[in-house]
């Protein structure tokens, strides 16, 4: 086992990783920017190293500063959290070449799964259902138009180097294809330095259902059921739940088995997620593989009782999974709301600033993963996540009630935030009935408060 883990992240996920390490008897090293001097991850870690000024390019994305911090502090492993360098293959190579174990997949795995066209081809070859479309990349607009006519409209053009909704364009008819191709390619070129695209049939109003995977160095792979992440705004998830209200026992078994086969086909050896689109006829299609711990991992922890961060650390250290698929016995229903420092009355504009007063909800089945406290100032440099409210109950109906009352208890003063938005969403009949898809947020009407 490792002795001392450097956490190359900040905010709630840095705290989350520190908590797992402490319970495992592992020493922790926090890194922080000047803007995070008063952050809790700095206070609760055994050691802390300042790595640079506020902007993330000079701190949490500063690879040589992180490697130096690991070296001077004597860390033997590094946990990247999510975002920042969690899916940066060159950084993974740097860690290993400096004798620091990267807690996550190999650099090659990140490269293969990071190229969405390559990942899709590999999954198709392994027999995983994929959305009909191009076999790998499409060379030009004319080829795209020809292929689109064969598979039928609408189609979507996606950046090979993209993911998470960036560098995508929909074409409704033949006349749209050239423009969609050029726009998507330009966006991909300027955003990722790689204009390559692939083409797919566009699935109208699907659900986003993803399966949590856990693999070890011995080739054992299990899945920990699904998360429904269909409630998103501009590709940012707002609410996630497990189990999905749209997934039957039979469908869960099929999606779980498929996700394990997908992970096995690439010899996956750590925590990861297989994202699927689910259409109204219960067809599911591989979309992307995420090679990191995800923001929404707590709902899976609540229903399975498995600590995903501890499992990531153990499997990275070569410890074999002790849980077999038959021992994964999901219990109850969990829902997460992401509370952001954004103003829902003004198009969700970011609202950094000082939290003057704070009350966190509590009671049975309520978990709040947060790094904020009364008097804390949210810096302007980073993402706007303030807290994750996670509720767990025996049934979905009880979990929704628990979510409603917990949101009512949750008070954040001093900055605009998304609690009032969530308060309304969790009372919307479509949400209460679990009858929603990825178009929910578009259609939802938020009533401004006076
Ligand atoms: C799609 C799709 C429909 N058909 N691909 C959005 C994020 C990126 N991971 C892929 N996305 C989509 N890909 C095909 N062939 C619809 C979406 C999509 C979406 C997916 C998941 C969650 C929310 C979404 C919102 C809009 C579009």
Could you explain the architecture of this structure?
The protein has helices at 11-24, 40-44, 63-73, 89-97, 107-114, 116-125, 141-151, 177-192, 249-265, 297-304, 308-316, 396-409, 419-425, 429-432, 440-443, and strands at 4-7, 27-33, 47-52, 77-79, 101-102, 155-163, 166-171, 197-201, 207-215, 221-233, 236-242, 271-278, 284-290, 333-340, 342-343, 349-350, 353-354, 357-359, 366-370, 377-378, 385-393, 411-413. By secondary structure, it is α+β, with helices and mostly antiparallel strands. The strands form six sheets. Strands 13-12-9-10-11-14-21-19 form an eight-stranded antiparallel beta sheet. The chain has a five-stranded parallel beta sheet with strand order 3-2-1-4-5. It has a three-stranded antiparallel beta sheet with strand order 7-6-8. The longest helix is centred in the middle third of the chain and has 17 residues, at 249-265. It is globular. It starts with a strand and ends in a 7-residue tail after the last helix. The mean pLDDT is 97. It binds ligand MV4. Ligand MV4 binds next to strand 6, strand 8 and strand 13.
């Amino acid at each position: 086992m490792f002795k001392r883990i450097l956490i190359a992240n900040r905010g709630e996920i840095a705290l989350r990783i520190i908590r797992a390490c402490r319970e495992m008897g592992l020493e922790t090293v926090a890194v922080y920017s000047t803007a995070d001097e008063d952050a809790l991850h700095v206070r609760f870690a055994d050691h802390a190293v300042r790595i640079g000024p506020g902007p993330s390019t000079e701190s949490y994305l500063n690879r040589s500063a992180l490697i130096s911090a690991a070296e001077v502090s004597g860390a033997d492993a590094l946990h990247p959290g999510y975002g920042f360098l969690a899916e940066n293959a060159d950084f993974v190579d740097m860690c290993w070449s400096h004798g620091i174990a990267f807690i996550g997949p190999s650099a090659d795995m990140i490269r293969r799964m990071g190229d969405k066209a390559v990942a899709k081809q590999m999954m198709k070859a392994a027999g995983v259902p994929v959305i009909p479309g191009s076999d790998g990349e499409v060379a030009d607009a004319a080829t795209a138009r020809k292929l689109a006519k064969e598979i039928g409209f609408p189609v979507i053009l996606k950046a090979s180097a993209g993911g998470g909704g960036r560098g995508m364009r929909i074409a409704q008819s033949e006349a749209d294809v050239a423009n969609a191709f050029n726009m998507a390619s330009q966006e991909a070129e300027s955003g990722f330095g790689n204009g390559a695209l692939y083409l797919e049939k566009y699935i109208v109003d699907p659900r986003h259902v993803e399966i949590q995977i856990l693999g070890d160095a011995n080739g054992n792979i299990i899945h920990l059921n699904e998360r429904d992440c269909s409630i998103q705004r501009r590709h940012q998830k707002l609410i996630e739940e497990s189990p999905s209200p749209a997934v039957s026992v039979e469908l869960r078994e099929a999606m779980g088995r498929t996700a394990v086969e997908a992970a096995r086909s690439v010899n996956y050896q750590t925590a990861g997620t297989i994202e699927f689109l689910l259409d109204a006829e219960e067809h599911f299609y591989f979309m992307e593989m995420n090679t990191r711990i995800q923001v929404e991992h707590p709902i899976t922890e609540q229903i399975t009782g498995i600590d995903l961060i501890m499992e990531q650390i153990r499997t990275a250290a070569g410890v074999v999974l002790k849980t077999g698929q038959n021992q994964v016995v999901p219990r109850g229903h969990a829902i997460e709301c992401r509370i952001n420092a954004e103003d829902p009355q003004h198009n969700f504009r970011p609202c950094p600033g000082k939290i003057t007063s704070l009350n966190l909800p509590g009671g049975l089945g309520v978990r709040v993963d947060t790094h904020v406290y009364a008097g804390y100032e949210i810096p302007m440099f980073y993402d706007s996540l303030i807290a994750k409210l996670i509720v767990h109950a025996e049934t979905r109906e009880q979990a929704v009630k628990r979510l409603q009352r917990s949101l009512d208890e949750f008070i954040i003063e001093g900055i605009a935030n998304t609690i009032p938005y969530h308060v309304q969403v969790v009372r919307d009949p479509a949400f209460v009935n679990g009858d929603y898809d990825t178009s929910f947020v578009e259609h939802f009407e938020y009533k401004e408060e006076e």
